[in-house]
Amino acid sequence: MIARLDALGVVCSLGQGKQAVADALFAGDTSGMRLQNGWIPERSVTVGAVEGLLPDMPAGFEQAASRNNRLLLAAALEIHEEIQDAISRYGVGRIAVMLGTSTSGIAEAGEHIANYINSGVVPAEYLYCNQEIAAPATFLADWLGLSGPVYCQSTACTSSARALLSAQRLLQLGVCDAVLCGGVDSLCKLTLNGFASLEAVSDERCNPFSANRHGINIGEAAALFLMTRADSDEPASGIALLGGGATSDAHHISAPHPEGLGAQQAMHKALNAAGLAAEQISYLNLHGTATIHNDAMESLAVQALFPEGVACSSSKALTGHTLGAAGALEAAFCWLTLSNYNSAKRLPPHVWDGVADTQLPRLALVEAPGALPATGRRYLMSNSFAFGGNNISLILGDLP
Fold first, then answer.
1. What is the CATH code of the structural domain delimited by 2-398?
2. Is 287 in the active site?
3. Which of 152, 176, 188, 287 is catalytic?
């Protein structure tokens, strides 16, 4: 069974909408990464914030208002026509919603709780259900009137990559005929201060795989795919999720296995699921958070799997680490790379200071203007790693 990715809605610090995001992505545009105050006490930090207006909540859904849901709504509105076509074709009971998130509506909840601590009054707009993990998926399904399976997954930074694998499984099992899948996370003080307590946040723009790397930037994003089953009696065309691999090495609650064993296994599983050899991969979107331990282990894992090298880059310097949305967002970057929104067939460039860490294997980081192969089918891999040794690798590619 082939899981076809028919449509994509996306919003992040690179812009709102596929063309704006693609233009900034392939140009290596870091202008969306800005130094801001107010997130961490007595610090200014670089974040990947979405600029510009977000859509208002639909009539009747004002109580579900959160920045997280408004980011998700922006992505959904971009593919609203395709969603309505799917509803007409399959019916509301045969379309599922499967999302990944880590923040849900906790940004607003934090503000409301602070108000209560300071004043003793719970704000009238505070609703506990808006901070529940399932809130984004529930909102989306209710707004669209869908009655298929609806749920969110929260496995930290692999949440939405896992959501794509779960969506594929729903189609394989015949539970539904289409899935709205992806991820969403918004900036909030809870996550920024949490990562700061781990001494993992960089004040400056992050510098993946550099000898001078010293931490992550946090960002926000929403990426929403319409995934359907490519039936054998229909011409197969477009872009598909061809395979994925998931592992949990459980080495440490927050640090990855130093040799990247779980990461290697996830990539191996993805290749096996897609029926591909490592040398068939044209490009790898690295997890590449710019922390000391992540970049070290990922370098070792990639070198072990691709001893001859593979064109690769981290997009974290362009968007920040969007946490629960990162897996879907970086799958979206692979989708855009394969799509008509990338007419020049460029690869996402790796933005850094160019100072390689000599203690690690040298990766084939994309220097602008890297390009996809001119002929033949293209296969792209995207890595997502998370706390607890949770690892996901996805492979997207052309359908014949």
1. 3.40.47.10
2. yes
3. 287
